[in-house]
């Protein structure tokens, strides 16, 4: 993972929404979804729990910004 990956994860955690995070990051929601799927596949576990449309960090997810 690189710095941009961490920035994306932190933004998703802060917004609790892929759509809002994508808007703030100036990327499409589909690009952010693909990013998250790739990272979760790399680490082999979900970083977020999906509760409806909300995204909540799992214990594996980063707990604080860089």
From TrEMBL:
Matching PROSITE patterns: HTH_LYSR
One Pfam family of this chain: HTH_1
Ranges of residues in domain HTH lysR-type: 1-58
InterPro entries the UniProt entry points to: LysR_HTH_N (IPR000847), WH-like_DNA-bd_sf (IPR036388), WH_DNA-bd_sf (IPR036390)
Entry keywords, A to Z: DNA-binding, Transcription, Transcription regulation
Protein's UniProt keywords contain Cell inner membrane: no
SUPFAM superfamilies assigned to the protein according to its UniProt record, in alphabetical order: Winged helix' DNA-binding domain
Keyword presence, Kinase: no
Superkingdom of the organism of origin: Bacteria
Molecular function via GO: DNA-binding transcription factor activity; transcription cis-regulatory region binding
Similarity field: Belongs to the LysR transcriptional regulatory family.
Protein known as: LysR family transcriptional regulator
């Amino acid at each position: 993972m690189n710095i941009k990956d961490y920035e994306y994860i932190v933004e998703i955690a802060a917004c609790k929404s892929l759509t809002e995070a994508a808007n703030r990051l100036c990327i499409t929601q589909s690009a952010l979804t693909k990013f998250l799927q790739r990272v979760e596949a790399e680490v082999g576990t979900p970083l977020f729990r999906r509760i409806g449309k909300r995204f909540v960090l799992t214990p594996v997810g980063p707990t604080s910004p860089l």
